[in-house]
Amino acid sequence: MEIGQKVKVFRIRDRVNADIANKLGKIGTITGYKMTDGSDVGAIVQFDDKTSSWFFVDELKVTE
């Protein structure tokens, strides 16, 4: 996954607050990356409503 790609949130593997849970099924643009507490990498996704959050890459699917 690359910065600028459109992605869809298709699953959320951890418990999250309602604001993040509402992003399930939404499409956004990758704006950056985040190193998680382990050795995993997350992607920062910005949505049309100008909010952003990070997700594990296995929670996202690239859209066309």
The averaged pLDDT comes out at 91
Trace the largest sheet across and list its strands: 4-3-2-1-5
**Protein structure class:** mainly beta
Task: Specify the helix fraction band.
Answer: under 10%
The domain tally reads 1
Strand content: 35-45%
Can you summarize the main beta sheet?
5 strands, antiparallel
Gyration radius, in Å: 11 Å
For the secondary structure, the number of strands is 5
Morphology: globular
Number of continuous helical runs: 1
List low-confidence stretches.
Answer: none
Task: Provide an overview of this structure.
Helices cover 6% and strands 44% of the residues. The radius of gyration is 11 Å and the shape is globular. The protein has a 5-stranded antiparallel beta sheet, with no helix packed on it. By secondary structure, it is mainly beta. A hairpin with a 4-residue loop joins β3 and β4 (52-56). It has one domain (6-62). It is built from 1 helix and 5 strands.
Based on the model shown, name its key terms.
64 residues, single chain, mainly beta
Strand and helix layout:
Elements: E1 6-9, H1 18-21, E2 27-35, E3 41-47, E4 52-56, E5 60-62
Antiparallel strand pairs: 1-2, 1-5, 2-3, 3-4
